[in-house]
Amino acid sequence: MFLFNTVDGRQYFDVTRLSQLLCLPYRSAKKCSIGLALGSFFALMVGCKDTTKEDFMPSQKSDFVNHTFSAALAFEDNFGQVASNFNQGESFYLIFTLTNQSSSDQQIDFSSSQRLRAVVQNANEDIVYDFDSRVMYAQVLGRELLAPGEQRRFVVSMSTNDFSVGEFTVTAAIALSDLSNDELLDNEITQFESRNTFSVQ
Is 43 within 8 Å of 15 (Cβ atoms)? Predict the structure, then answer.
């Protein structure tokens, strides 16, 4: 069934798929947040069918050789157009694209509904927003399977109400279990990360 995945022979409810399904008809952040909340609630009611964290190993950086993936980060306005300048009070979307550059299927396992880790810095390089502290994630197992050459788009709704006027740098990465915010802030951009800027006026 579309809303379930199988890990090590055990079936579990995939809250990410339900959330995407609930958010599909909407572009507004508020309605999409309602969809995510409903998805999280439903996942808690359904349960994980005896699948525990002890049975499941979240993916780490060392699970993948160099150049397995490439990552790209962009922003879109409410009309789905790529943009980097937004007005105060406007909502926008962070678009993270992960591409499997290898010649084999690549499987990424997650211990929660979180798929992205990201930090936002202002012109003084102060952290003004980060996904780990500002977003709640359902504690359900998840998996992303990318075929050779396949791209996977991860979309996160954001609002300029969370930022002052100015320019901001976002560093985002797929949420591997051993990839920390500190690593996002260093100068090295790995195969799992991408960096881009946007401004609020």
Answer: yes
- 154-189 burial, b for 16+ CB within 10 Å, e for fewer? bebbbebeebeeeebebbbbbbbeebebebbeeeee
Identify which of 16, 157, 19 has the alpha carbon closest to the alpha carbon of residue 91: 157
201 band by pLDDT with thresholds 50, 70 and 90: very high
| DSSP element (H, E) containing 199 | strand 193-200
Nearest to 169 by CA among 114, 127, 116, 132: 127
Return the CATH class of domain 50-200: mainly beta
Break the chain into its structural domains and give their ranges.
50-200
Q: What is the pLDDT of residues 121-145, one digit of tens each?
A: 999 999 999 999 888 888 889 999 9
85, 92 contact by CB (below 8 A): no
